[in-house]
């Protein structure tokens, strides 16, 4: 720790610069270095954001003075080696989702972090999204009774058609690309801590949009059951034309809770009503990232800046855990153990889609 601030290294010049970098600064970290594959791009973005060091290897960043933590925002197939290198150097780590290439890698990352005794968090920033956190709290408080049925639905046209540009790795299944890892990971995490662990899944992973050469899905359709007995479905596509379509609902024995954009409602025998966001869950207004950094259709997923404030709260929790401070229990933070559990669901989904069968989810 230098100058009274924890120092963090940001690995990744895409989402790392759009969200991680400003969010960690919002939380009081000093960004010591930016790590990227392209020397010129990394140097230009480090200069743009006033980061003192631009390097092309994590080893060079770890050798700098004043580095306490590492935040990893790179393609998922690169996470394991970066995480292990960082924790073996004694650094605390936040790692983006999807956590790993497969369950074996995820378990290796968790074991390495636990052996090193460092703070390890998963990049599930939307646990601090006001609507998501409020929905989870309402369910936990019994607003719907015993949860029985859950529905998550989102159709957006942002990647529809061959002209919608995406990073090369995102289009390749072997690199962990696709909409399952990009989007379903958030929902899977939300369901796990709101409704319970997944028992099993039946899934399809089609490519809807006409995109030559793409091997990773732009759509997922998942039926699931939790160990707590909730039946549910997750369907989302980034490759469909038409107006956006979205639904988030949890129905139980005494009522239903649902989300409409940023608002949360409960309906029961007494009627439907909007639920006010408690002060402890409220976030500041979104801050869009610089428009000139948004080059592809994929970048435009982050154009509204809705993840910055929740990510700053994740980073603040990370800071407090490093400093040994008490942190609120609600919303709960996600560790690498959650990364392992979420990866078990992703692996089961992919196996189900490949085999056309119901697949049990590996439990911890």
Give a verbal description of the structure.
By secondary structure, this protein is α/β, with parallel strands linked by helices. The chain contains 9 helices and 15 strands. Strands 14-13-12-11-7-10-9-8-15 form a 9-stranded mixed β-sheet. A 6-stranded parallel β-sheet has the order 3-2-1-4-5-6, with helices on both faces. Strand 1, helix 1 and strand 2 form a beta-alpha-beta unit. Helix 4 runs parallel beside helix 5, helix 5 packs antiparallel against helix 9 and helix 7 packs across helix 9. The longest helix has 20 residues. The chain starts with 6 loop residues before the first strand and ends with a strand.
Q: How big is the Rg?
A: 20 Å
What is the mean predicted local confidence, pLDDT?
A: 95
Structural class: alpha/beta
Distance from N terminus to C terminus (CA atoms, Å) equals 35 Å
Question: How would you sum up this structure in a few lines?
Answer:
31% of the residues lie in helices and 23% in strands. With 364 residues, the chain is of the alpha/beta class. The strands form 2 sheets. A 9-stranded mixed beta sheet has the order 14-13-12-11-7-10-9-8-15. It has a 6-stranded parallel beta sheet with strand order 3-2-1-4-5-6, with helices on both faces.
């Amino acid at each position: 720790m230098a100058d009274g601030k924890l120092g963090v290294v940001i690995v990744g010049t895409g989402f790392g610069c759009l969200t991680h970098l400003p969010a960690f600064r919002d939380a009081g970290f000093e960004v010591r270095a930016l790590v990227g594959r392209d020397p010129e791009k990394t140097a230009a973005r480090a200069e743009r954001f006033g980061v003192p060091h631009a390097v092309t290897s994590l080893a060079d960043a770890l050798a700098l003075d004043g580095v306490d933590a590492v935040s990893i925002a790179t393609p998922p197939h690169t996470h394991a080696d970066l995480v292990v290198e960082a924790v073996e150097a004694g650094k605390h780590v936040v790692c983006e989702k999807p956590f790993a290439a497969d369950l074996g890698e995820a378990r290796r990352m968790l074991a390495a972090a636990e052996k090193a005794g460092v703070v390890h968090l998963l990049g599930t920033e939307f646990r601090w999204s006001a609507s998501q956190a409020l929905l989870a709290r309402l369910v936990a408080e019994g607003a719907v009774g015993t949860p029985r049925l859950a529905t998550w639905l989102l159709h957006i046209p942002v990647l529809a058609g061959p002209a919608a540009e995406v990073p090369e790795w995102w289009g390749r299944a072997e690199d962990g690309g696709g909409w399952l890892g990009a989007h379903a990971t958030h929902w899977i995490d939300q369901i796990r801590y709101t409704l319970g662990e997944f028992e099993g899944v039946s899934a399809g992973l089609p490519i809807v949009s006409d995109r030559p050469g793409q091997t990773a899905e732009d759509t997922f359709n998942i039926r699931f059951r939790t160990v707590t007995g909730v039946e549910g479905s997750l369907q989302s596509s980034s490759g469909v034309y038409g107006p956006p379509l979205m639904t988030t609902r949890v129905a139980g024995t005494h009522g239903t809770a649902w989300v409409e954009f940023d608002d949360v409602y409960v309906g029961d025998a007494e009627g439907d009503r909007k639920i006010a966001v408690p002060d402890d869950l409220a976030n500041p207004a979104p801050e869009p990232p610089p428009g000139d950094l948004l080059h592809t259709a994929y970048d435009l997923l982050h154009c509204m800046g809705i993840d910055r404030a929740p990510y700053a709260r994740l980073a603040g929790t990370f800071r407090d855990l490093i400093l040994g401070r008490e942190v609120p229990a609600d919303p709960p933070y996600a560790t690498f153990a959650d990364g392992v559990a979420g990866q078990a669901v992703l692996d089961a989904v992919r196996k189900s889609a490949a085999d056309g069968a119901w697949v049990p989810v590996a439990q911890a």
